[in-house]
Design brief:
By secondary structure, the chain is α+β, with helices and mostly antiparallel strands. Helix content is 31%, strand content 29%. The protein folds into 2 domains: 3-72 and 138-317, 2-Layer Sandwich (BirA Bifunctional Protein, domain 2); 343-436, 3-Layer(aba) Sandwich (Rossmann fold), CATH 3.40.50.800. It has a 7-stranded mixed β-sheet. It has a 5-stranded mixed β-sheet with strand order 20-19-21-22-23, sandwiched between helices. A hairpin with a 2-residue loop joins strand 12 and strand 13.
């Protein structure tokens, strides 16, 4: 079966079966649109975040990092406009009482669940409220952050005062955000709780922002190759003035070809000086930057590249999922880029009931795991082990057999994608994999 023919149902099934993603609160009947990441999912997720941090923060001289809090003063959300503007219209079915965004309905005249009629539109807040304090009635009403960006803006002056950064420079962070979505679904694509990786790149109001914006678009495209996504499946969609956020002067949604259709994966926006000006006005604090070269003070403008961790993970899984016919049998394989694969190498003894094979395999495993994330696997026969490693995306399998012990001290290395096998000396394994994983 060709890769593009795969359905979401198969990917969802694989994710649960192999420990990538589990339904949230499942033993209590579940909580709609919440998910937990299993042993393999958390490894994949952490690899994405690690690569993102290296590419966007560590590899650039003009970037620093931040880890802002989930809970912040409610005044921040009032100043940013979220309390007033972070709302969507919704309609409610008079029969089953489910709620929907009108713009997401194929047929706005009837409920897609039961065929009932809708109420008129009402505005619905996308933020989760919470109360800070021991007594709810007397506590401070705050919100779970609906985006990570505001922590960067309110810490802008702190970062200027504690580092040697000069404009142009960026602040990046990753972390959880929460949105009380009306329309959810498509597995982990749109959920109540999700993780973002965001950058606020500060520039002079006199800078050629269009050139800087385009440079960031190209730089974002470069991240696709690092995590194994195909450029031809990404579409840069220019958002018109009527559809842009009120603070944005230009926005591009980078949409990806998912099995359920083309939809937003990443985005980049030119937010001008809206956020810093709002926080300066509402807080009474001077958030201007003194430019040594221009000898002037100004409120910087901002370009914002933003990425969804969960959506990126879903794109990687859907791009990597293949079904192949092999001698009348189906082989399911995740052709993950080795940069993101949860395990880089699996080590097997040919037989689990032969202590000398097991001991030798464990010795090799212990050496390889010093440099790479590895798995030791002696469950079932060798064929079942290969099938499992194919399904979880392990690029290479190393098998210790009797020839290893009795003849040449070589092991069999199997390539996940080509399934070709070759014999390599144990003493050469570190050099062999160093070359493979440097590509």
């Amino acid at each position: 079966m060709k890769q593009e023919e795969n359905s979401m149902e198969k990917i969802v099934s694989l994710c649960k079966r192999r420990g990538f993603v589990f339904p949230g609160s499942e033993i209590y009947g579940g909580l709609a649109n919440t998910y937990d990441y299993g042993p393999l999912g958390v490894e994949l997720k952490n690899n994405i975040k690690r690569l993102w941090w290296k590419y966007f923060i560590h590899d650039r001289k003009d970037m620093v990092g931040l880890d802002g809090g989930i809970l912040m003063s409610p005044k921040i959300w009032e100043a940013s406009g979220h309390v007033k503007n972070f709302k969507d219209p919704l309609v409610e079915c008079k029969k089953c009482h489910k709620r929907f965004r009108p713009d997401k309905l194929e047929d706005p005249s009837k409920c897609p669940e039961c065929g009932g009629k809708f109420t008129g539109e009402r505005m619905f807040s996308g933020m989760f409220k919470t109360t800070i304090g021991p007594i709810e009635e007397e506590g401070l009403v705050s919100y779970l952050r609906p985006e990570t960006a505001q922590a960067i803006f309110v810490n802008f002056k702190n970062i200027l005062n504690s580092t040697n950064v000069k404009i142009p420079f960026g602040i990046g962070q990753m972390g959880k955000a929460f949105r009380n979505e009306i329309t959810t679904g498509n597995f982990i694509f749109r959920t109540l709780e999700f993780e973002q990786m965001e950058i606020e790149y500060f520039i002079s109001p006199h800078a050629k922002w269009k050139e800087i914006f385009e440079a960031w678009v190209e730089y974002m495209h470069g991240f696709m190759y690092i995590i194994g996504l195909e450029r031809e499946k990404m579409h840069d969609v220019e958002i018109g003035e009527k559809d842009r956020a009120f603070y944005s002067k230009r926005t591009i949604d980078m949409e990806y070809d998912f099995p359920f259709g083309q939809d937003e994966l990443w985005a980049i926006a030119y937010r001008t000086d809206y956020d810093l000006k709002q926080h300066q006005e509402e807080s009474g604090q001077d958030l201007q930057y003194f430019d040594d070269e221009a000898k002037e003070k100004y409120v910087p403008h901002v370009i914002e590249p933003t990425f969804g961790v969960d959506r990126t993970l879903l794109a990687i899984l859907t791009a990597a999922y293949y079904e192949e016919e092999m001698e009348g049998e189906k082989r399911v394989v995740l052709k993950l880029h080795h940069n993101v694969a949860p395990y880089k190498i699996a080590v097997f003894p040919l037989l689990r009931n032969k202590p000398q094979l097991v001991d030798k395999a464990k010795d090799i495993f212990n050496e390889l795991k010093k440099n790479w994330r590895c798995e030791f696997d002696d469950n079932g026969n060798i064929g079942k082990r290969y099938r499992r490693q194919d399904e979880i995306g392990t690029p290479y399998c190393v098998t210790v057999d009797f020839e290893t012990l009795e003849k040449d001290n070589k092991v069999t290395i199997r390539d996940r994608d080509s399934m070709k096998q070759e014999r390599v000396a144990v003493s050469e394994l570190e050099n062999y994999f160093s070359k493979k994983f440097s590509i």
